[in-house]
Give the backbone structure.
Amino acid sequence: MAKDRKIDVVILGLLSHEDLTGYDIKKRLDGAIGFFWKGSFGNIYPALSSMEEEGLISKKKNSKTGGREKIPYHITSKGTKALRSWLEETQVSNELKYETLLKLYFGGAADRSITVRNIEIFEEDIKRNLAVLNMYKENLEKVLDEEDHVFYYLTVTFGIDTYEAYLKWCSKAKKLLKK
């Protein structure tokens, strides 16, 4: 597994639950995982190729749907060991990158109204995401007796708590900038 290529462990984690095609993996990344991790076809498919070469995953029997060939991938025992090894690592990277905050940091170079508008755009995005996370939370609360759902639930509630704090900050920031 390529050092520091986190897309590998994301793929292994997804495949530890079910066999998926590259397209299915992208859909999962755009769904619930997209709240805290991003991925593109441009990094998924090269990762699938190298992980297959390393014996971490294998291709399953092809199927055709609507004339398209689907190639599902399956995690191997070597892949399961690599995933567990990563889960046991104590050193992690928790980077935070928000272009809104970067614009805020340099906001003194423009009129305050521009910064307020940027915060309002950020706030609307957070509200939309918060609504989706609350829907996930409601659905997950019904199935907490299933082990994996407990972990999904904890991730979702982290997102909710974080986004609620962002909304609180947005209100304070707008109030200060409008003085």
Observations:
- Strands lie at 57-59, 63-65, 68-70, 73-75.
